[in-house]
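Customer escalation, tier 2.

The customer says the design service returned an amino acid string that "doesn't look like it belongs to this structure." They asked us to rerun it and document both sides in this ticket. The original structure tokens are below, unchanged.
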């Protein structure tokens, strides 16, 4: 078993995974899904590490580098003394929920797209929406057919992250598989076992958000709300 010192250094910025994560974030930013310093991102650098690396709050996500991450434990506490002056994202506890519920998850991506924000408001009253009969559903890991029915939970937005984290955890335990969740009027959380898988899940969700919004605009029966 690794010593805590080794574990902590593994969570320091500068690893290949963090470098790759910043590339993914720039892609998401270029698509317009991380506007105005919003959004946050994390990765579990190693299975032996005591927590995960999460983006520092308040930075322009188009300019994020591997040094703009900090190591935190699953309670959101800063792990490294030299990073004690940094402030983790306020939503770090929601990343913790994902890592605790899904041991395979290595990367959590949280975006604030316009389509996701609008859709989350439309489905806030029903606490979520079913995603089914779209070929793009095969973008989710393990999905083999468009004849798949997946629940996307939508939670009321809140600033009390500890309460919200408990709500999210309780709901996610009831649904399997779940590939993401939304906060109403706020944004999407999704994750993956790798950078590529997590990025693919964001793209899949964003495709679905735009498609469903257009179907609603055209009055398609399944999405008339
Ligand atoms: Zn957010």
């Amino acid at each position: 078993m690794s010593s805590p010192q080794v574990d902590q250094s593994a969570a320091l910025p500068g690893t290949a995974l963090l470098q790759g994560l910043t590339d993914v974030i720039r892609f998401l930013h270029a698509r317009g899904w991380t506007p105005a310093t919003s959004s946050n991102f994390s990765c579990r650098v190693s299975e032996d590490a005591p927590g995960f690396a999460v983006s520092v709050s308040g930075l322009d996500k188009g300019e994020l580098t591997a040094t703009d991450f900090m190591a935190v434990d699953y309670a959101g506490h800063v792990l490294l003394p030299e990073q004690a002056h940094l402030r983790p994202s306020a939503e770090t506890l929601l990343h913790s929920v994902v890592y605790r519920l899904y041991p395979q998850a290595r990367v959590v991506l949280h975006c604030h797209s316009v389509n996701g924000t609008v859709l989350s408001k439309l489905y806030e009253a029903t606490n979520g929406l079913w995603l089914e009969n779209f070929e793009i559903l095969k973008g989710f890991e393990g999905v083999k057919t468009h004849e798949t029915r997946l629940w996307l939970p939508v939670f009321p937005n809140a600033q009390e992250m500890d309460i919200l984290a408990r709500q999210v955890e309780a709901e996610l335990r009831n649904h399997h598989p779940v590939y993401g969740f939304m906060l109403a009027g706020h944004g999407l959380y999704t994750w993956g076992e790798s950078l590529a898988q997590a990025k693919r899940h964001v793209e899949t969700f964003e495709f679905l958000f735009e498609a469903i919004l257009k179907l609603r605009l055209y009055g398609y029966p399944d999405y008339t709300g």
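Tier 2 assessment: The sequence is consistent with the input. Strands lie at 40-43, 52-55, 69-72, 107-111, 128-132, 149-155, 180-183, 187-192. The two ends are 53 Å apart (CA to CA). Sent an explanation to the customer and offered a walkthrough call.
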